[in-house]
Amino acid sequence: MYFQSLIRASSLHMAGTAMRVSRLVLLLFLAAQLFDGLFTYVAVSAVGTHAEGNVILAAWMNLLGPGPTLFAAKLVAAAAGVFVYTRGMHRLLAGLTALYGLMAIGPWLVVYRTWP
After folding, report:
1. Which backbone phi and psi does 53 adopt, to 5 degrees?
2. Residue 40 DSSP one-character state
3. Which of 15, 55, 58, 77 has its CA 20 to 30 A from that of 47?
């Protein structure tokens, strides 16, 4: 009986830790979306829509402007991240967050490091 309650308490502690880590990953994902939107907006405002690597977003920027286009795109991405989180696919969200950091935020940091 003692060991069962000890195991149960340990499981609850591990579940609480996993929940905190998954929430941190969600916050990092949302922060990545925010910063990518800001970095893109600044670059597109400074040099034009060719600074956007996604041709679909660049086309929408030419139609609606960079602000509304980026707001809508980042809102959809954030909603997708929250959806993945609420479905319990925390490893997928962690992978997407890491991939986003490497493929979106990283290049912007390189660009802004060499920005005149």
Report:
1. -80, -20
2. H
3. 77
